[in-house]
Design a protein that fits this description.
Elements lengths: L70 E4 L1 H9 L4 E7 L5 H12 L3 E5 L1 H7 L6 E5 L7 H10 L5 E6 L4 H14 L3 E5 L8 H6 L8 E5 L2 H9 L3 E12 L8 E7 L7 H6 L2 E4 L11 H19 L1
Parallel strand pairs: 2-3, 5-6, 5-9, 6-7, 8-9, 8-10
Antiparallel strand pairs: 1-4, 2-4
Helix pairs in contact: 1-2, 5-9
Length: about 300
Amino acid sequence: MPSDPKKRNRPGLKATNEKKEGNKFIPNYRSRTNIKNTSNSPEMNRRNYQQYEYHPDEQSVRTDRKETDEYILTGRNPIREALKNGHDLEKLLVQRGELSGSAREIVQKAKEKKVQIQVVDKSRLDAITPSHQGLIAYASAYQYSTIEEILQTADEKGEKPFLVVLDGITDPHNFGAIIRTAECAGVHGIIIPQHRSVGLSPAAVKSSAGAVEYVKVARVNNISRTIEELKKEGIWFYAVTMNGQDYRNVSFDGGVALVIGAEEDGISRLVQDNCDYAVSLPMTGKIESLNASVAAGIMMYRVFDGRRTTK
């Protein structure tokens, strides 16, 4: 299927490159660059990481509150085993300076797995735990799925794919709320980028209220490239922006993917340019944007309602 939005136009709908005035959802987007490639997670049973979780004593102090929301793997052996067994890691903190043989091997393995690596001062690691051996990793609280598994889920249900693509959502509570609503609205899967995005952290999983058990989440190399590939599967992409058509006047037929951006930055320019259409939520108040999870919920139920009507 052609990737040019104009060639994929439907009657009565405008492509995303057409703008209009109005007070809509999400402020203007800003371009993002230097998107790094990542690899899809291997297919395997979902597992948790509680056996590796670090529990600090009462005297330990963490300087970053976000760190309390993630499973922490401390020491080289737990991190090595997690990588060896295909566990998903959100990021790896590496002590600044020369690495010894085993640490160098772990870092190289993490690079091969496309894990986000941050080089930090020893004091940063010491603030988390004194027994870090120069390495601390943050493990995902739930195993990621693949795009193929998401499409297979839709096929097994005899339904056209219904996807949600999150571009730059960094708040775990928003992410968890979106997962929860997605499960209720019949979404087959959620797609997120590896970087500049929240992952399946314990806070996000907890906020999903168990919905993560039923909604597949895939983490991909590049959102724009993924959109181009999924268009070939007959899926139409709708960017939720401030300059689109009123969502109430849009018919979401066939395979649908809703693209939701962060409240501050919106959808990145490259991602929006690759979408087929831009849709917006009309607003009359003084606030310029809705919470991302609220906007996503409204849009998901618009698609859900349309599918129930056409059955």
